Amino acid sequence: MLKKVFAAGMILAGSALLSACQSGASGEGGIGGQSPAQPAETTGGAVRESELRAYCPSVTIRDGTAFSTTYERGGEEDPNRVIYLSSISETTRTCKYGAGTGSVTVAIAGKVVPGPKGRAGSITLPLRVAMLRGDQVLHSQIYRHPVSVTDVSGATQFVLTVPDIPVPGGIDRGVTLQVGFDEGSGR
After folding, report:
1. What is the pTM of this model?
2. Are 165 and 106 in contact (CB under 8 A)?
3. Taking all residues of the chain, what is their mean pLDDT, rounded to a whole number?
4. Is 50 a member of any domain?
5. Cα–Cα nearest to 103, from 149, 143, 62, 54
């Protein structure tokens, strides 16, 4: 009897470990287990081989834009005068395909941590989402994402989802996605 219980426990533990391998990671999987590439529905429920092989560009965080620090007025660069430190921790995307067209939904997750001068309140995060094909900018927009900080003793999580960004000319391997905080946006 004890052997059967032990074997069942090992099977459950192994299943849990294997299912953890399916969870999302930044740029490769998805936030909350979302699939990174979801082909468009086809009639009759059949999935074409071209849809299975479809490419969906990964999301990268532009160098130097993963963090944003909010200081008290006049206290720039003084670590004792930090109100909030914001960071991007995870990104993902999903793609939809059409005849010669496509669209991408991008999600950005992160945290806002109160600093020494932290206080409860609302902060607006300037997050940029850009899509490029080589040197050509297909999409570049700042999304002002509000976050309500209620607990000054811990981190507040945020998720920004930008749905259905059109991809002129369709999705191909030349398309790249970049995200990050945009400090030059005059928050």
Report:
1. 0.71
2. yes
3. 79
4. yes
5. 54
